[in-house]
Specification:
It contains 12 helices and 6 strands. By secondary structure, the chain is mainly α. The protein has 2 domains: 329 residues, Rhodopsin 7-helix transmembrane proteins (Rhopdopsin 7-helix transmembrane proteins, Up-down Bundle); 68 residues, no CATH class. Strand 5 and strand 6 form a beta hairpin. It starts with a strand and ends in a 23-residue tail after the last helix. The relative contact order is 0.12. Keywords: Cell membrane, Disulfide bond, G-protein coupled receptor, Glycoprotein, Lipoprotein, Membrane, Palmitate, Receptor, Transducer, Transmembrane, Transmembrane helix. One of its GO terms (biological process) is positive regulation of flagellated sperm motility. Belongs to the G-protein coupled receptor 1 family.
Amino acid sequence: MEAVSLIRRDDPDVEATSFPPSVTADWLEDGNETTGNQFQQPDWQVALWAIAYSLIILVSITGNVTVIWIILAHRRMRTVTNYFIVNLAFSDVSMASFNTLFNFVYALHNDWYFGLGYCRFQNFFPITAMFSSIYSMAAIAVDRYMAIIHPLKPRLSSTSTKVVIALIWILAVSLAFPQCYYSVTMFYYPRTVCMVDWPDDYGGTHQLSYQYAVILLIYLLPLLVMLVTYSLVGRSLWGGHIPGEATNHYHNQITAKRKVVKMMVVVVVTFALCWLPYHIYFILGSFNRDIYKQHYIQQVYLAIFWLAMSSTMYNPIIYCCLNQRFRAGFRHAFAWCPFINVSEEDKMELQHTHTWRVTMTRSRHSDSARASIKTTNTFDTIMAAEVNAERDVTKKYGVHSVKRPENMISSAAKPVQHTH
């Protein structure tokens, strides 16, 4: 993303914007330099925008750092999907920390205060972080597709997942490099601008080709991939009929998969809606640069840029609202707050070992009790550890399950497991 204004070399009196620069065009009257900065805003207006952007930075950094801690500090949370969520959270918190504030300050007055080095970084890193964010979402979509549509095929290992994440960042750096390479700072009295000085200038082949390639690669293409994969997954999870005689374990698996897919679909839709006006703004500017002449365009850009940057703060809120384990993690992280209560169930959700919750059910036609176990492990692992598991649960949590012969495994009562 290019957080800059671009100066046409063939017409020094005209200043325009490109993808994704700061705001409007600075038109100098009669070819004479102005003695002031037309982008100055009243103090009350600056204060309101500062509060709005500060909210993004505070919520995004706090929420995403907490998400990273929840996953990395708890072994139970270290799954393929959650590793990609860590990468997504890291991209979002980096965007909020290194781009939002500086681009906001630049957009306020269209005056660059931070030197050439940070100008290059400012034009380079946002595209890198955005590429990493959306392709982490796409990787989660593909992983869910393989797990649900092709469950017998090999899944990504922890090592393979890290390789995929590294590849995402390598491609992201490669895509963003041209903006870093062509970034310059130029002084146009009374202010300095940070700009990308393309070889054939603004509106030329290089600039337009790059702009459309970026929009295609970091927005349209990954969204298309996620649309297709989640459509197929949704048809599989919601379109089929669950057999009436299916076990409790089967129903629990389907329910858990549906919840994960719902959560990620909400994340993707939120991202797409937040960035859509931003891309439309710069696409329209490519065809009609007169929109940058409008007096209100600075406020329009600040609003559009706020919406785009706000995408970095919504994901932790979505995780907390739609996922029980993340919700337990947030309660645990903010247990120091007087109004946050951490229950025993919350503690069990984030145990470093696998925790099983045992519920007792009684049949109407039988006096014998059956244990209904909610589990995420395979039945082979469960049966192998049955005896030790029940003893551990009774000893640690005071939960009593029905004793039965070791050589009998009831399909309605799967065993409890604790592995250290």
